[in-house]
């Protein structure tokens, strides 16, 4: 069942914001890191999503401005802003979906792992908030390094006794979005008609596009495979270098995150056949967290789909990816346990 709006914004003075009576049913979504490069366009895209009735924007800076700005859009969702740790409880209470793009972004020359020292602490403290204030919410983790931040969130939830592996998803959708775009360019077709499964993780060689399983079925030359794999794995770096110090992918990431969130909400609503790639607690390989296709439903992840047949190149790449993934996961787990 779709949750109904329960109350008004605290201090709500205008009828426009007071929607407890006759409000359209919908989901409550919080974005943590909403004032950032990803957070702002993502907040805008969520404000136009008709599945959402309440949108909470949380950050440690600038949320009053972003909230005022976005709240003027004449769409259904009610927007409320929350600033700083003392308002995290208000931001999270009652949420169905929490999306986390909080943290610092890469600069040229940096790997996603270089972000670990700052972002690990941010994801840990925000996950503690989720465990306390909305332990049943679905959580989408965007903050890098995703390969480590998802295990960090899981460890926090385990400590708090709230861990449900079906409800924690690392967002790797941008890798799929990029793969669809680049493969469509090579095939000379519309990217909306292309579906490339991308498995493994979300950093360098852990990003494994399964080009043998592309839909529509397509054959690639070894040169095309090499070009496509390299471009998909390094798509993030392509943007970091082009932005030359001004950050990493934000607009395409917001688009990818919004698509992924939409799938999560449609699944929560009870729509059937929602399949996405995501980085999750997994038994698909011996590595404890792994990205692969999952079927989403009312309870979050309802089924982890098998990897399917891999060719020799993909099998070899998988072995290399697994090594790197294992050490990134260990680093995340150790960070919470220490
Ligand atoms: P940004 O620096 O523009 O924005 C980050 C926002 O997080 C800022 O507004 C900052 O104030 C906020 N923040 C910092 N500490 C916080 C805390 N404790 N609580 C709440 N908010 C906090 O960075 P951008 O470009 O938006 O990137 C955000 C993250 O997303 C980075 O870690 C980046 O590496 C990652 N990313 C992930 C991708 C993926 O595919 N999963 C793709 C692109 C970026």
TrEMBL record:
It comes from the Eukaryota. It catalyses: (S)-malate + NAD(+) = oxaloacetate + NADH + H(+). Its main location: other. Residues 28-170 form the Lactate/malate dehydrogenase N-terminal domain. Homodimer. The keyword rRNA processing does not apply. It is an enzyme of class 1 (oxidoreductase). PANTHER family: MALATE AND LACTATE DEHYDROGENASE (PTHR11540), MALATE DEHYDROGENASE 1, PEROXISOMAL (PTHR11540:SF71). InterPro entries: L-lactate/malate_DH, Lactate/malate_DH_C, Lactate/malate_DH_N, Lactate_DH/Glyco_Ohase_4_C, Malate_DH_AS, Malate_DH_type1, NAD(P)-bd_dom_sf. PROSITE patterns: MDH. CDD domains: MDH_glyoxysomal_mitochondrial (cd01337). Residues 172-336 form the Lactate/malate dehydrogenase C-terminal domain. Belongs to the LDH/MDH superfamily. MDH type 1 family. Keywords: Glyoxylate bypass, NAD, Oxidoreductase, Peroxisome, Tricarboxylic acid cycle. It is found in: Peroxisome. It holds the Pfam family Ldh_1_N. This is Malate dehydrogenase. Its EC number is 1.1.1.37. The keyword NAD applies.
């Amino acid at each position: 069942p779709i949750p109904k709006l329960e109350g008004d914004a605290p201090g709500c003075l205008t009828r426009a914001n007071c929607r407890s009576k006759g409000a359209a049913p919908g989901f409550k979504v919080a974005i943590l890191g909403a004032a950032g490069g990803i957070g702002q366009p993502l907040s805008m895209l969520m404000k136009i999503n008709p599945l959402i009735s309440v949108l909470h924007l949380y950050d440690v800076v600038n949320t009053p401005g972003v909230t005022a700005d976005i709240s003027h859009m004449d769409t259904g969702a009610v927007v409320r802003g929350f600033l700083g740790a003392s308002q995290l409880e208000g931001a999270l209470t009652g949420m169905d979906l929490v999306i986390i793009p909080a943290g610092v972004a890469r600069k040229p020359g940096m790997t996603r792992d270089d972000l670990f020292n700052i972002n690990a602490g941010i994801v840990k403290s925000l996950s503690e908030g989720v465990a306390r204030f909305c332990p049943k919410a679905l959580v989408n983790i965007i903050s890098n390094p995703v390969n480590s931040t998802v295990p960090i969130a899981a460890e926090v939830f385990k400590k708090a006794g709230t861990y449900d592996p079906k409800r924690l998803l690392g967002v790797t959708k941008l890798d799929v979005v990029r793969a669809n775009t680049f493969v469509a360019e090579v095939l000379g077709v519309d990217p909306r008609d292309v579906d490339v499964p991308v498995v493994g993780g979300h950093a360098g060689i852990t990003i494994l596009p399964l080009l043998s399983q592309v839909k529509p079925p397509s054959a690639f030359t070894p040169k095309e495979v090499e070009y496509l794999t390299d471009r998909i794995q390094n798509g993030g770096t392509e943007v970091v270098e082009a932005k030359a110090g001004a950050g990493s992918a934000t607009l395409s990431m917001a688009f990818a995150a919004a698509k992924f969130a939409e799938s999560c909400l449609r699944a929560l609503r009870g729509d059937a056949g929602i399949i996405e790639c995501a980085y999750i607690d997994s038994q698909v390989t011996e590595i404890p967290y792994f990205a692969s296709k999952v079927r989403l439903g009312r309870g979050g992840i309802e089924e982890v789909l098998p990897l399917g047949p891999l060719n020799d190149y993909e099998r070899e790449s998988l072995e290399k990816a697994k090594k790197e993934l294992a050490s990134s996961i260990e680093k995340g787990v150790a960070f919470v346990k220490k």
